[in-house]
From TrEMBL:
This is Methylthioribose-1-phosphate isomerase. InterPro entries: IF-2B-related (IPR000649), IF-M1Pi (IPR005251), IF_2B-like_C (IPR042529), Initiation_fac_2B_a/b/d (IPR011559), M1Pi_N (IPR027363), NagB/RpiA_transferase-like (IPR037171). It catalyses: 5-(methylsulfanyl)-alpha-D-ribose 1-phosphate = 5-(methylsulfanyl)-D-ribulose 1-phosphate. Pathway: Amino-acid biosynthesis; L-methionine biosynthesis via salvage pathway; L-methionine from S-methyl-5-thio-alpha-D-ribose 1-phosphate: step 1/6. GO terms for biological process: L-methionine salvage from methylthioadenosine. The record marks C162 as: Transition state stabilizer. It comes from Palleronia marisminoris. It is an enzyme of class 5 (isomerase). The keyword Metal-binding does not apply. Belongs to the EIF-2B alpha/beta/delta subunits family. MtnA subfamily. Keywords: Amino-acid biosynthesis, Isomerase, Methionine biosynthesis. GO terms for molecular function: S-methyl-5-thioribose-1-phosphate isomerase activity. Catalyzes the interconversion of methylthioribose-1-phosphate (MTR-1-P) into methylthioribulose-1-phosphate (MTRu-1-P).
Amino acid sequence: MKIEGQPYRSLWWSDEKGCLEIIDQRWLPHELRIQEVRSLDDYADAIVQMRVRGAPLIGATAAYGLAIAMANDPSDASLAAAYDRLHATRPTAINLRWALDRARTALAPLDPERRAEAALALAREIAGEDVDINHAIGTHGLSLLRRLAVEAERPLNILTHCNAGWIATVDWGTATSPIYQAHDAGIDLHVWVDETRPRNQGALTAWELGSHGVPHTYITDNAGGHLMQRGLVDIIITGTDRVTRRGDVCNKIGTYLKALAAKDNGVPFWVALPSPTIDWTVSDGLREIPIEQRDPREVSHIQGAGPGGIAEIRVTPKGTPTRNDAFDVTPARLVTGFITERGLCPATEDGLAGLFPDLIARRA
């Protein structure tokens, strides 16, 4: 995608510098800062501190992290230690484990002297696959939006939550890919962008959409149900950090409330789902998916741009206890369906199995 006309991806490997370069997302939407990531500790910190964020992007970053570890020390002990270090960074998004498992499986049988080159090639492959997957999600989502736009007979109103855009992936995004492709195809649409407290990732979505010329409006998290009641939302599309084999969706905190409001108001609730985000080993999302507890300071303080530059201020009374559950689980019964790289399907075990029989077979 583009920033002020310049093409970017969220991360890219620099052969000249011999390191990964990322967009440091802590400073968006106010400043665009590029950071070099050189050591295993740098990779782990980038994930924990949300310099990179979004399940697909975390997975790609972790793959490059293993590659840098193998370049420094390709031994079995180094491979195991790097895997454990990166795996411990964030517990909820399944793409992290998916990428690490894929890399470890490929690298473990190799002679140590072959691992560095193979690991870097695999990281590039995972990043490239992510771009292709997200573009395909957009193509299938476009058919859905095209149909709804004809029925609406006015600008199509889409509601998003959190940021499942191109900067949460390597490119295109998951939930935003259908929006970008529909906009580029000339479909008249408008996006309601949830602020998504406490880290206000909706501001990243607004920054993305504005850069691409997509009409949008930034709203508070609690406005979505109100807009649905008044017929101002035609469809909700969110991303996801993990989906169980039966269709439960784990996504940014607040997603469950949007799904409840959608159900009550008859608004279709769709989830853009890349296949690496499916956890075939888990059935009951509420009982089995670990929910990340992040720093309470993210709730008690907020970052913004002022006359003196970017600053952080406290918004709660001093000493007030805070809690920061980063995700929630939306039961499959509240999800209309999934938009995947292989097409659309209902949010059921049979629906997922019908599109991905080969992936189920690998888990059998």
